[in-house]
Amino acid sequence: MTRNYSAKRLPKHAGAAGWNAILEPMRPARVLSENTEVDFAVIGGGFAGLSAARRLSQLNPGARIALLEAGRIGEGAAGRNSGFMIDLPHDLTSDNYAGESERSDQKITRLNRMAIDFAHSMVEEFCVDAAYFRHEGKINGAGCEASHARNISYAGHLEQLGEDYQLLDAEDMARLTGSRYYRSGLYTPGTVMLQPAGYVRQVATGLGDLVDIYEDTPALSFSRTGAGWTIRTPAANLDAGKIILCNNGHLESFGIKRGRLMHVFLFACMTEELDETARRRLGGEGRWGITPSDPMGATIRRIDAGQGGNRIVTRSWAEFCPGMETSERQMCRATASMRRKFDDRFPQIAGMPMEYSWSGHLCLSRNGVSVTGEIDDGVYAACCQNGLGTTRGTLTGICAAEQASREKSVVTEFFGKQEEPSLLPPPPISTLGATAILRWKEWQARKE
Ligand SMILES: Cc1cc2nc3c(=O)[nH]c(=O)nc-3n(C[C@H](O)[C@H](O)[C@H](O)COP(=O)(O)OP(=O)(O)OC[C@H]3O[C@@H](n4cnc5c(N)ncnc54)[C@H](O)[C@@H]3O)c2cc1C
Hints:
Elements: E1 4-6, H1 18-21, E2 36-43, H2 47-59, E3 65-68, E4 84-85, H3 102-125, E5 133-135, E6 138-142, H4 145-161, E7 166-169, H5 170-177, E8 184-188, E9 192-194, H6 196-207, E10 212-214, E11 221-225, E12 228-232, E13 237-245, E14 262-271, H7 276-282, E15 288-292, E16 299-303, E17 311-320, H8 328-345, E18 354-364, E19 371-376, E20 379-383, H9 389-404, H10 410-416, H11 429-444
Parallel strand pairs: 2-3, 2-13, 3-10, 6-15, 13-20
Antiparallel strand pairs: 1-11, 4-9, 5-9, 6-8, 7-8, 11-12, 12-13, 14-17, 14-18, 15-16, 16-17, 19-20
Helix pairs in contact: 2-6, 2-9, 3-9
The structure holds flavin-adenine dinucleotide.
């Protein structure tokens, strides 16, 4: 029997990825243009793909490794997120991010910190700009009493875990952000703040000495040929002994884990450069990052020249999109909601034009697990990162590379014990149900 996996769809992005747009222009892509043979092929150039390629090169010195990215590195979700590489549990389905138990939260925190250390070692090795990867910590901002209570409850949980934190009052929040919107904040020091597009682009550049990286080169299909696999791309084929799929939600585009992955799109926007007058009116410090104390609220970041300009980035609004793309109408609704949230927080610069607005793909499972492990002979997956793809993507990438190299570690042990993603109700029930839940939760979190 021929085993053939064909991509039913390829990634489609809506809106310019602001983080990438504010960096220096990209060099022309290196496209796979002639038939090539490698030991390992990685499909997807986000957090998972880059980490998998790096780990493969560590474990298999001298092996031929290629990475195929459908578009440009920095243009996909890895360059469209808010850049919070969080060390602590970040369970989006809970009320305050806490996980199911103290023990599991401690384990996840240890693993998340391993991912951060792994990413940091790439930053050092590949001379990634220090401003793209800062150990700065982040704040859970509370805009109302209920959210403040959530912060207090999360602080109690951190206490039990033995984690550092600091509670900030409304004055502290105003001093930091220039906004009088926040009732309180909960600072935790372990989060790394990324310039996400800068980070993935520069890691890819450094990795380019060890791995052949082909962009604008989507994997259209892969099929079993002899002892390996042939990956078809628009201009040439890539023969690989083993494949690691790091294409997140697009795993399902190859017919894998069908009906088990939830495709949610998040929206974000970035102001134009804040000139001196706007900065004076805004006040506050030049760089900070706030996640909402209710997971369904808005994430707000202020960045400075080191990350590509003095700007504010707002992330809010979610849509369930089983077709893996967003519509113009959804983008309009999301930008209107983000405009409101921005103006509520910063009345002193209300109406500040948004230079970039975009959406990005998040892949979730109902039971919060990722897809890892060998899914066919010599085909491994590092997909479905749930809410925290910067750290989880790095971890699943490490995991898949280790599994493909027959290496055991605490990472492979952790993911080896995960169940498979639970089945979703059939459409349209899943779409109607998920959309109703998202709208209800967003309404509940409207002050956040
Ligand atoms: C607005 C927004 C804000 C977010 N904020 C945060 C945050 O602050 N912190 C956090 O941890 N997470 C955040 N996330 C989630 C995070 O961005 C993702 O979970 C993360 O990018 C997943 O990493 P990944 O490498 O698994 O997948 P991706 O980054 O999606 O990379 C997969 C890559 O595979 C490529 N691909 C797909 N199909 C093919 C194919 N057939 N051939 C070749 N290549 C293919 C895609 O082009 C893509 O580049 C946010 C997401 C969004 C959209």
